[in-house]
Write the structure tokens for this entry.
Amino acid sequence: MRIRVIRPGSKQNTDPGFMEHSARVTAQYAPAGMEIETVFLDAGAHGGPMTGHINEARILSAAKHVVHEVVRAEKEGWDAVYLSGEYDVGAEIARHMVKIPVVDSGTVAAHFAPLLGDRICVLVVEDSLKAYTRKLLRRWGVADSITAMRTWNIPLGELWQRRSEVKELSIRICKDAIERDDVNVILPMCTVYTPFILPPEELEDAIGIPVVNSVAVSLRTAAMFVDLNIRKNQKMYPDTPYEVWGE
């Protein structure tokens, strides 16, 4: 089984050290027998959500590049793609243009979290992303399970250099949500923070409640789609030629 992992950041504005590290961590969560390859977008120095303060517009600016990579993955014979970005960066569009499964990290993790508890705290990157996160949670039908939201407030463009701050900060904001909002599940909405910098197991040990590992859950979901030969819903995602977006 061959799964291509597509990161939403542009390789032109992402630290090479982080690119190598994230690919290595992702591979650690792959089930036995799965071949994976992680790619970053060829989106230019200002493309993708890894520069500036992150928001809906900056995230969705990467959608066209994500769709291109999904189409390329199918042409190259990969069995499925896993979009390792939690904010629907081109996933809905890409499903129209390919027949292989397109697994989106955010959707999968958001529907997995209510299996672990009924009071979920979502961790988002910055305050500027709160409105878009709420919009997505309503679209995915899980908003009623979300009882708290907390932000790390370290811009993604600075995060790899400031990674030593992540564990203490994550523990602090999670404990605050537990005390103030009685949450019983943590749903991190950024793989850069966890698991790429902070393993979810370490955060769980420190706060005492489950932390969703969206990478592990998404890779296994992709494997399930392939193993069960689940085909896309043509009524939901009718075939659309990639040419509508242009080469």
The longest helix spans residues 166-181.
